[in-house]
Amino acid sequence: MFGEADLHATLAATHGLDATATVDRITGALAAHHGGWASDDTALLALRVPGDD
Question: How confident is the model at residue 36 (pLDDT cuts 50, 70, 90)?
């Protein structure tokens, strides 16, 4: 199972990426973790939160 620690490590590796690249990185990590098998129960949503930049 791709757990909370796996998600944390994957998201930490996306720092500085845009939304598309972040979703691609997460999708790749899930595929690698599950040997290329994709679950139909997986959904990813990327949101931009305005910051003080």
Answer: confident
Lookup: tokens for 45: 């949503």
| The token pair that represents 35 in the structure block | 């040997």
- CA 11 to CA 23: how far, in whole Å? 10
- Is pLDDT above 80 for 31? yes
**How big, in percent rounded to 5, are the helix, strand and coil portions of the chain?**
45, 0, 55
For the chain, how many residues are written? Answer: 53
Distance, in Å, from the CA atom of 46 to the CA atom of 36, rounded to the nearest integer, reads 22
* Two tokens, residue 36: 């290329």
Here the contacts of 22-29 (C-beta below 8 Å, separation 24 or greater) are 22/46, 29/2
